[in-house]
Amino acid sequence: MSRKVGLWVDHRKAVIVVITDTGEETKLIISKVEKQLRRSGDSPIHRPYEAQQVPADGSQEARLRGALNIYYDAVIACIRDAGSILIFGPGEAKGELKKQIEKSNLKGRIVDIETVDKMTDHQIEAKVRQYFQANSGW
Prior knowledge:
By secondary structure, the protein is α/β, with parallel strands linked by helices.
């Protein structure tokens, strides 16, 4: 049996469940992505120079995209040797991760992508186990 991986992912964390012949292992990767963009300085400025205190949208987006790419690369490093990959989660992160995986030449290993709400680690582990038991042909 090759390594089967299921992962729940959003922009804050990834819970990775690896199933092999010898057992099951769960890994957690925490993102350093800061979605809430803050103004520089201690307090809001109500002067004509206020716009200069807030970074331009392009630089904020570039910083966010760079942080997400680093996060997704860390996730991919943990699942690189998987034979089958199940991706699930609540938001856009699963689709973004799928694109990064495809760029990493692991495209054919993705068996399914599902939208699910927030889950506990135990629920994630159970879902991955049930998915691969039901689809044991993978």
